[in-house]
Every structure is written in C-alpha cells, then in structure tokens.
Amino acid sequence: MKSFLIIIFIFTCFTIDGQNSYEFEANEQFPFGKLNPNAPKQVADFQQLIGRCECKSEKRNRDQTWAKPVKMIWTFKYIMNGTAIQDETLKEDGIHSGSIRQFSKDSLKWNVHYYSSGSTPANLPSWEGVKKENGNIILYRKQKAPNGMDGYSRLTFHDINEKGYKWKGEWVNEGETFVFPTWKISCVKVQ
Questions:
Q1: How far is residue 19's CA from residue 9's CA, in Å, rounded to a whole number?
Q2: Max CA-CA distance within the chain?
Q3: What parts of the chain have a pLDDT lower than 70?
Q4: d(C-alpha 141, C-alpha 13), whole Å
Q5: pTM to 2 decimals?
Q6: DSSP annotation string for the chain
Q7: pLDDT tens digits, 8-19
Q8: Is the CA virtual torsion 123, 100, 68, 171 positive or negative?
Q9: Cα separation, 128 vs 141, whole angstroms
Q10: 37-189 architecture in CATH?
C-alpha cells in the first residue's frame, strides 16, 4: 500500500489533468523546447533565435583594432517550461558564455543575466531592454567609459530572420550620440 501511494504521489507531481506538466521543456521531439502559451507574449521576441547557429565573433583588441574572427556555436532554447529563454555560446577560443532571459511583467522589459567561463563574479551582470518596432532587440546596462564618462553597454540583435541574425555590442554615451562598437557577431542557423 505504501509503495502504491508513493507511485500515485510521483505521478501526481508530474501530471496535471493527465498531461505532462512540463510539456514545453526540451525533449526528443522539441530539442530546444517550446513556447508556453501562458508565458508573457514577449517571450516570442526570441522565437526566430531558438535553435543552433554557427557564428563568427569579432572583438576589439586593446589597441582598438579588430581581433581575428573566432568561430562559435550559439544555441537558444526555451527553459522554465517555455516561459523564459537560455542561450549558450561555445567558442573556438575556449571562452564560453550564456545568458538567462526573462521578461518582467512589472517593468515590461527583458532582464538578461550573463555568465562566462572567463570569470566567476559573485553577482551576474545584467542588461534590460525591449524588442523595437523594427524587430531589433536592444538591451542596456549602465557602464562608464575608460575615461570615466557615464554611458551604457548597448547590446543589439538585428537582421533577425529564419536564416540567422546579427548581434553587436557597443558603448554609447547617455544621449546615444556617441557609439563605440566593441564586439560583433554574425550567425547562420544550422538547426
């Protein structure tokens, strides 16, 4: 009898009305998960990025020249039962990274928390932003320039379509009249 009750309890934990309660998580049929229809509608902002891309990443050197391009794989998937997005990069140079992307119903903005194998901060840096009418997703984080000027780290996903997307990292002043590109990535969808 005790074993029967345990089995019933386990079954109840994983089902609701006879359906799998985690049906939007990644599985064999949907390796990148699925968008949960009960998630904020903005979670679909990243829908065209879901999947795996082969990318070329270029960063600035200390002398301000562009470094040699690095090959990378960038994978986006739905997490938290289809209510948020996680991405992961695997780079040829051995510095891997990722983000957790959640849409806040309170601020009506994306909150993006970034992590990297290159460092282990006590608190993850985060950006916030929205998808614009032109389809670009733009995220900001307060950041001073090396000379102490106030401004932002601005991250932009652009040229998003079914074949891939582009991404750029820039430093901008508070009025966004000065823009200094720091990183650029171009991606082609492979899965």
A1: 15
A2: 72
A3: 1-20
A4: 39
A5: 0.86
A6: -HHHHHHHHHHHHHEETTEETTTTS--SS-TT----TTS-GGGGGGGGG-EEEEEEEEEB-TTSSBPPPEEEEEEEEEETTTTEEEEEEEETTS--EEEEEEEETTTTEEEEEEEETTB--SS--EEEEEE-TTS-EEEEEE---TTS--EEEEEEEEEEETTEEEEEEEEEETTS--EEEEEEEEEEE--
A7: 444 444 444 445
A8: negative
A9: 7
A10: Beta Barrel (2.40)
**Residue 176 corresponds to which tokens in the numbers above?**
């966004």
Report residue 129 as tokens: 């932003």
Structure tokens at 7: 């089995």
- Please give the structure tokens belonging to residue 161: 């379509």
